[in-house]
Each structure stands twice: as C-alpha cells, then as structure tokens.
C-alpha cells in the first residue's frame, strides 16, 4: 500500500470540502478499496472516511424510500419495509459476498465497487485499459468466463460485479450526488457507464462527487419481484449471471415488467427490449424466452463465456414464470 | 486513536495503512485471529466489533477508533471455555484449527443476527423469523471456509449451542 492521509469528516459538507482535492478517495466500509490499495490498483493520497456519516433509511412522501449512502448492506437487507415492499432488493443484497462483508459494506461503496476482472487486479503482469488507460486489454483474448457479452468495447469487456445494483436498476432508483458542482440526482440507468474508449471511468461521477443517498420510487400494489443469482458455488461467489425483475399482471396479461441482468455487461443491464417485448402480452413461458432472445440478439460472447446468453435467458424465463404463478419468494 | 480490545483500552497504530488484523496480531500480539487470504475471501480473520462480525483483514484499524473489538482471546472466562468453544471440541468442529477462531467469532455474530431477525439468502419467507436449520446455518456461515472440511461438525456445534428447543 502506498502511504496516505486519513481523515474522518464531521459531516457531508466537510467530506465534500476534503474530497474535492485530486488524489482523494472516499472510504466506505473499505471492503473493496482496502483490497485494491493493497494490490496497488488504487493509490489514493488521501482517504476521507464517509462510513460514519448519518445512515438513515426514511420513507418519502411519494411512498418510496430514501437510503443514505452510509447505510450498511446488512441494515438495508434486513429493513422491514425493504423486506416487505422491495423483496428483490433484500434478496439481491443477501445473495452477495458474506455476512461479514455485508456488515461492513456501505450502499455508496457497493455502487462504486470495481470489476473483479483478474487482469484489472494483476498490476505486475497484465495489460488493462481500466487500470491503466491505453495499455491494452488482456481479457479479450484471455480467460474471459466472467466477462461481458453485452455493451463491451474493443478497450474493455469487464463486468460490474454488484448484486445490489442489479436490483436498483430494475427498481428505477435515483442516485443522490453532491459535489463541487452542487447537489444533483442521477437516474440509476445513467449512473454506471458502458466502457467505450474510457473504461477507466465506471460511472458518470466527477472528481469530488459524493454519493449521498439512493431513492427508491414506490412499486405499484400487486407488483411481485425477486432476484435470482447463478454462480459457481451455492454461496459466497460472484454472479455468472443474475436477474432482478418486477412483474405486475392484469388477468394473465403483463401490465408492467422491469428486468435487469447482472454479470453480462460493464453496468447493471436494464433489459428494455425484453420489457417492450413482454408488455401487454400473455405471461407464457414462450413469451419469456422470446423476450430474452430479443435482449441478447446483439450479444458478443468471448471465448469462455458463450454460455451466458442462454443461461441468462433461461434464468429470466424461470424467474418470470415463478412470479407469474405467484410462488417466487 | 485508541481501541477497546477484549475490554482493555489499547493504542491504535500510528500508520493508517495498518489493518485491524495486523494491528491485533503484530502490535498487540493477539495471534488467535488468523490471516488466511488477506483479501476477504476466507473469514479466518473474523472478529466482533460492538458485537457485529467483520473481516479484520479488510478493515483499516483507524476506522475503528473507540470501538469495542472482541477476538477469540476475549471469549473464554479464564480456563472456562465459552459454550461455543466447548461445543466445537465436543462436536469435532475443527481439525487443524486454523479457521476455528474466525468460525467461532463469526458464529457468535451470526447468532445475534439470526435472533434479531436478519433474513438470509436461503430464507423462503423474508417476513418470517429465521429458523436454526442446517441450511440456514450453512448459508450464514458461508463466509468462513474450512480447508479441513470440518463444516458438518461446525454446524453441529453451532446448533447445539444456540438452537432453542423450539427450532432444534
Ligand atoms: C471476497 C468478496 C466477495 C464479494 N462478493 C460479492 C458478491 O457476491 N456480490 C456483490 O455484489 N459484491 C460482492 N463483494 C463486493 C462488496 O459488495 C463490495 O466490496 C462492497 O459493497 C463495497 O462497499 P464498501 O463500503 O466496503 O466500499 P469501499 O471499499 O469503502 O469503497 C469502494 C469504492 O466506493 C467509493 N465510495 C465509497 N463510498 C462512497 C460515496 N459515498 N460516494 C462516492 N464514492 C464512494 C470508494 O472511493 C471506492 O472507490 C465481495 C467482496 C469481497 C471482498
Ligand atoms: S484473512 Fe480476512 S478473509 Fe481471509
Ligand atoms: S480446521 Fe483446518 S481449516 Fe478449518
């Protein structure tokens, strides 16, 4: 680890003042950043510890929820309103990492966690445009089982590893940000970026921007939702693919459906094509498979991950079928 | 800065780079807490902070200024083992013992999570109180690997210690 100064701000304004200086990183639970610093992938000169800022979960006037960035992952997953009204969010968080890590990890840090691409981590032996812009990408022709099949670029085929963010994408969450340019809100779909020729930038945040909260809109009554993760072992492993989905039926027709995939792209992948294909259609297994096919028609699998479109499609169909029958948890 | 480790106030490290794990082991010579992977993947370094289980390898010690840390050394009362320690002996909850301090601290943290109603990935009903089933314990302890494969004994020891008559 390279040396750094550590500061604990007294409030968000203090954090913003300190965070506006180049070379500074905000520190949440440290479960990703400490690891990246130890590997010298990240080399901040100053850490501003925002893990002690207020960590409230509040109901909003529109019937939604406002979740402060410092809320721990466990606290969010166990919150009674989240369990009752946003089960896909509880389930997504509980499917991630381990209990110890969820006790440490913050909502802000979960949003900003970086890819688990092994070439990104390998500072000594690998080229990585995300870690070192312009150096090249060893994943394209390398071991790329966990990499992207949608939205990748010549420069980068990394995936975003978060489970929680897949649920937030399906929920149309809004990210509250404060920074040198003042406070603003960013729709979840515009928060993370596709790699293009700037894979070093995971999100649309600018220098000094602090995530202050995440807002969830209410889900219409009668909406069912869940999260399904497919991984190499039953627990404590990152997703190969995952699906977060909400479904509202009218009779046997689909009135409203929202779908997001994890493990397939550089960002949580909101499946707009699949949603459009399902709207107003009867909720049948074939319709679900057709919708998934529409989403993955442009998939560009790599050497080791050609299984992902089919796996993600079958997972989506299985989950929607359970939701439609009313027996998914 | 200072920490309260097993009830005693101690100094924190001078260098903010020092992890809580290294501080416990190298500076305070509390070597019960183990370093397996040093990257969050094994759980050997699990300790309790104000009763909550965390990974000390991914924790910078400075972040825990003023907090109460409990390590494996803080569980027994003199020569009297903590009931969970005794249960690990009785149920063959270990072979080499390397993962054991982390397993035991983790299980104590898990017990309070389960008691306050935190659901898990395998809980069928998010609204219902979780039960002390094998499946629940296995999922909740998945952050602690055991290379000797003592997992079944570990689950037995945990159930014997914490499961109430109602759910045992
Ligand atoms: C072994 C292991 C397994 C894991 N498995 C999974 C898994 O299966 N699924 C999953 O989803 N995740 C998994 N994770 C990742 C884990 O969820 C993240 O490490 C965690 O969510 C990061 O949160 P943190 O608060 O610890 O962030 P930190 O490590 O403190 O910070 C992460 C990044 O966020 C930035 N940051 C923090 N807070 C803010 C803020 N308020 N505003 C702006 N920037 C901020 C930091 O500067 C840093 O760049 C795993 C991690 C480990 C170590
Ligand atoms: S040493 Fe901390 S998790 Fe392995
Ligand atoms: S007892 Fe040997 S690693 Fe668990």
UniProtKB/TrEMBL annotation, chain A:
Domain (FAD-binding PCMH-type): residue spans on this chain: 1-221
Top-level taxon of origin: Bacteria
Family matches, as Gene3D superfamilies: 3.30.465.10, CO dehydrogenase flavoprotein, C-terminal domain, Uridine Diphospho-n-acetylenolpyruvylglucosamine Reductase, domain 2
Chain segments annotated as transmembrane: none
Keyword set includes Signal: no
Keyword set includes Flavoprotein: yes
Pfam families registered for this protein in UniProt: CO_deh_flav_C (PF03450), FAD_binding_5 (PF00941)
Molecular function GO labels: FAD binding; oxidoreductase activity
Protein keywords: FAD, Flavoprotein
Database matches in SUPFAM superfamilies: CO dehydrogenase flavoprotein C-terminal domain-like, FAD-binding/transporter-associated domain-like
InterPro entries, per database record: CO_DH_flav_C, CO_DH_flav_C_dom_sf, Diverse_Substr_Oxidored, FAD-bd_PCMH, FAD-bd_PCMH-like_sf, FAD-bd_PCMH_sub1, FAD-bd_PCMH_sub2, Mopterin_DH_FAD-bd
PANTHER family membership: OXIDOREDUCTASE (PTHR42659:SF1), XANTHINE DEHYDROGENASE SUBUNIT C-RELATED (PTHR42659)
Record's protein name: Xanthine dehydrogenase YagS FAD-binding subunit
Organism field: Sphingomonas rubra
Lineage: Bacteria, Pseudomonadati, Pseudomonadota, Alphaproteobacteria, Sphingomonadales
UniProtKB/TrEMBL annotation, chain B:
CDD domains hit by this protein: fer2
Protein name: Xanthine dehydrogenase YagT iron-sulfur-binding subunit
Key words, A-Z: 2Fe-2S, Iron, Iron-sulfur, Metal-binding, Oxidoreductase
Gene3D superfamilies, per database record: 3.10.20.30, [2Fe-2S]-binding domain (1.10.150.120)
Statement: the UniProt record of this protein carries the keyword Acetylation: no
Domain 2Fe-2S ferredoxin-type intervals: 1-75
MF GO annotations: 2 iron, 2 sulfur cluster binding; metal ion binding; oxidoreductase activity, acting on the aldehyde or oxo group of donors
Domain of life: Bacteria
